[in-house]
Amino acid sequence: MDSILKIENVSKSYTGHKALDDVSLEVPRGAVYGLLGPNGAGKTTLIRVITRITIADSGRVLLDGKPLTGGDVFKIGYMPEERGLYKKMRVGEQALFFARLKGLTKQEAEHRLRRWFERLAIADWWERKVEDLSKGMAQKVQFIATVVHEPKLLIFDEPFSGFDPINANLLKEEILGLRDRGATIIFSTHNMASVEEICDHITLINKSHNILSGPVDQIRRSAGGNNFEVVHRADDSTLSAALAERAIIVGESHNIIGGYRESKIYIPRDEDVKRVIAALNDNCGLRSLREVMPSMNDIFIRAVNGTL
Prior knowledge:
Alpha-Beta Plaits; alpha/beta; 10 helices; six-stranded mixed sheet; single chain
């Protein structure tokens, strides 16, 4: 795997608390990588280690195969969940300030910024005060300041908070566009729907450990293999008899239109799938059967609770 970022056995402790405990992961180049976990799990500490805001007690962070250095800050864009705009500055002045900190000349910074302001429909706010911005508008300015120097690695912490659905979708499209133009995205969020929509890979941090990593599709299939939704005409006793210990009814069946019932079943052994389908067809008036993949929200809850 061609990885842009490697975290190797990173640990970090604060007084009386171990925020990261021997955490390792790899972020594939050109991916949108979801960094998930409940509050206090260690996500923010890991991001701060990657961005060199905090130095790890042990372990290594490698960018493009080399240990991360102070100069690598220009290769990384980071938008924290806590926004840091100076309320009394003018919006354009504020954006220019951040762009210059990223190493851009004033001329190049203004050229890029005005182009981004047009893209995100905030060009008319260039001369306004930051304190006049709504939360969503301020979020757009912060997003622009994060990406204006065109870093190869971008880190967004809860980027959609404060956005209405239209602007959230706009930002999602911009993030995917950055990926398509060669950037790698680390995306920290609690919004599992967003993970399913845009993430290629994930890592789940819980209680300071990496408890789950991998491609999203692979994780969903591994967590939900052989779970099926069945539409049929049988009552519960007939359905149970037809399954004949080859499958388990999950939850309660319920009636749907046309005299049919819908049930969810789990078939533990792959070799029994065809037998179960045949039995349902012969005894239960089978109308349809489809495999059901668990949602990322289901996987998140199960993993955190230790039932995955």
